Amino acid sequence: MSLAPRTSKAKNIDTTGKRKNAIARVILKAGKGDISVNGREFQNYFGREALRFIVNQPLEVTATQGRYDISANIFGGGPAGQAAALKHAIAKALLETNPELRKALRGAGLLTRDSREVERKKYGRRGARRRSQYSKR
């Protein structure tokens, strides 16, 4: 098994990204900049502009928009978690194509997995920390 990074001239690059309960598997290959998510067009899958901005962050930071085709499978979580998981996976894939992009990606905080998770609900509480309403009488 070779430890050398895979380049865009060789095979497709497969990476995974995670956020909350969402897991994104990304296949990155040289192309003209098409992004598909779960078989749907990127703009149709993420309706909010803010989520589309989050997903495009790694491409904008590294100035590689329009150079790679991205195919992603995402499951679990909600729309925001899925967008952040996809961002993480794209950043990892770009790093594999060109290790010199590490400084730019690390500086923008795109290589670090956001490890925040939802706190579990405790017994006797209405949520993780919310208590029932106090009754004076």
How would you characterize the overall build of this protein?
It is built from 4 helices and 5 strands; from the N terminus they run ββββααβαα. A 5-stranded mixed sheet has the order 1-2-5-3-4. The chain has a domain of 95 residues: Ribosomal Protein S5, domain 2, CATH 3.30.230. α2 runs parallel beside α3. With 137 residues, it is of the alpha+beta class.
What descriptors fit this protein?
single chain, 137 residues, alpha+beta, Ribosomal Protein S5, domain 2, five-stranded mixed beta sheet, 4 helices, 5 strands, elongated
Give a quick account of the main beta sheet: strands, pairing sense, barrel closure: 5 strands, mixed
CATH architect. name of the domain at 13-107 = 2-Layer Sandwich
How many β strands by DSSP?
5
CATH topology category name of the domain at 13-107: Ribosomal Protein S5, domain 2
Q: First CA to last CA: what distance?
A: 72 Å
Using the alpha-carbon principal axes, give the shape: elongated
User: What oligomeric assembly is this protein in?
Assistant: single chain
Uncertain runs are none
Query: Regarding CATH, which class of the domain at 13-107?
Result: Alpha Beta
Portion in helices: 25-40%
Topology (SSEs and partners):
Layout: E1 13-19, E2 22-30, E3 35-37, E4 40-41, H1 42-45, H2 49-61, E5 68-75, H3 79-97, H4 102-107
Parallel strand pairs: 3-5
Antiparallel strand pairs: 1-2, 2-5, 3-4
